Amino acid sequence: MTKSALQIARAAYQPKLPKALKGAVKIVAGGATQSVADQQAIKTLFPNTYGMPLIKFESAEVAMALPAINVGVILSGGQAPGGHNVISGLFDGIKSLNQESRLYGFLMGPGGLVDHKYIELTADIIDEYRNTGGFDIIGSGRTKLEKEEQFEKGYEILKQLDIRALVIIGGDDSNTNACVLAEYYAAKNYGIQVIGCPKTIDGDLKNDMIETSFGFDTACKTYAEVIGNIQRDCNSARKYWHFIKLMGRSASHIALECALQVQPNICIVSEEVEKKNLSLDDIVTSIAKVVADRAADGNNFGTILIPEGLIEFIPAMKNLIAELNDFLAQNAVEFSQIKKSAQRDYIIRHLSEENSAIYASLPEGVARQLSLDRDPHGNVQVSLIETEKLLSEMVGTKLAQWKQKGNYVGKFAAQHHFFGYEGRCAAPSNFDADYCYALGFTASRLIAEGKTGYMSSVRNTTAPAEEWISGGVPITMMMNMERRNGEMKPVIQKALVKLDGAPFKTFAANREKWAKETCYVYPGPIQYFGPSSVCDEPTKTLQLEQAR
Ligand code: FBP
User: Fold this and answer.
1) How far is CA 343 from CA 1, 29, 347, 387, in A?
2) CA distance linking residue 267 with residue 512, whole number of Å
């Protein structure tokens, strides 16, 4: 296979490990834990994995010896830079404890476990993928592990391969599944440990113990590079407004991080829209005002960052989507038999009066996207909704009305972009390469300690990697009860942007200036070699959250 010069050089990169993981480790356990909310309900649903202590690894004198063990690994959900390094860290970790240990990768996500599709990950294969982006080593998928028959099918193959620990690398939904599986195998006394690893470019799987999900760093830096390039183009030609939608199915962390890196004219933060109970028209008006103000200064150009999940955070739309979710879940069969051309009318006839009116007022394309199949976890596929076009069209209409009234005298031409897939498989930054390797290595130590229902945790991540703290968090600690597909379910609580947090406050303190003036920053491409100040810098979000 032909490799690029960067790929060849990057293959030789040795990810940095926290000091404590470099030799023998001992475990330091804290007190009992409880879930973030709905404690009684979660405790009842997870009697075997609830309340376990937080765990930290520290250096020890005597090395622990692990009998040879077979371990399975699954990549679940959307790709995120660094997944291959989690696997190589896990591989090196189990091998460092016993050379006879083996690692099996289940193919194309959790479905590989159920369908018994797997490969053994040998040293040759692992070496091909060190420090590379993508999940192609074993592929990924979104099959939801939730049914007893799936757990039993999984158990069959795990028993056959003598696998005694399974590592699931995924986002909040996949780690919820990891926890359900851990509980099931523990209840059945099957002797199979399940460990989770925090993945998602969206950055919304985080809490006090999980400072960031892997992939967020690289993905944001990749988008910020391209947005910076667009800003330089836009500041050169001075004729376009660029409407840039950024991935992040729910939370606006990616848009906010990119805004902090590039200082655009506008960045919408969905969580603020919800808090202020803004309507679509409020958002459109506020954008149009910035466009008009800049036009008054002769600046008919600018950049607007739009979080992918915006639609679901506009309160009126959120109510509509919630009703649609329940309605479509309950009437799935009937709905699937209705002709496509009649589906819109069918929905309008069946929704409550208020939601029916909102649904009817939506442009055809957006309305259709809202009624399309949910992903296996019941989520609307927001990446398919063209919010950037919807907003620019509406802003254009508003400006035309203002022009007629003599309130606006500019030119408005829009360009549209959607950045998501462009960053999900980028070669991991040094941060993600190191962080992921440490997460995988930590998972091997949790396995060696016989733990199950834990998520691998690496903290203190704005300090040099040597000083990072490695350990484990009981997954039940992150759970609460939420409505999914019309039913209350235990799920990991999503971490949305905190409006009283330092990243948002920093943005809010600067946004008026960024709107009016042209304060663009051009971050340039991720650097893998060179001074640490250029190559190892964590995200602005992490730096501000940890105030370093
Ligand atoms: P995960 O939550 O699985 O990490 O995926 C995140 C994400 O990249 C979202 O930002 C986006 O909305 C979604 O995946 C797109 O899904 P798909 O890859 O199935 O098109």
Assistant:
1) 48, 55, 6, 22
2) 11
- Is there an atom of ligand 1 within 6 Å of 81 CB? no
Alpha helices in 140-214 (DSSP H): 148-160, 172-187
**pLDDT, tens digit (0-9, with 9 covering 90-100), for 58-81:** 999 877 777 899 999 999 999 999
Asked whether residue 95 carries a pLDDT value surpassing 60, the answer given is yes
CA distances from 40 to 37, 43, 47 (A): 9, 5, 10
The verdict on the CB of residue 77 being under 6 Å from ligand 1 is yes
Are 94 and 72 spatial neighbours (Cβ–Cβ below 8 Å)? Answer: no
**Count of C-beta atoms within a 10 Å radius of residue 477:** 25
Amino acid code (one letter) for 515? A
Neighbouring residues of 115: CB distance < 8 A, sequence distance ≥ 6: 153
pTM of the model: 0.93
Active site residue 136: no
**Rounded CA separation 115/152 (Å):** 11
Phi, psi of 55 (to 5 degrees): -130, 140
Lowest pLDDT segment from 382-386, 395-399, 417-421: 382-386
**Active-site hit among 92, 172, 173, 202:** 202
pLDDT band at 178 (very low <50, low <70, confident <90, very high): very high
Evaluate: CB of 200 within 6 angstroms of ligand 1: yes
Q: Which of 321, 300, 464, 342 is nearest to 385 (CA)?
A: 321
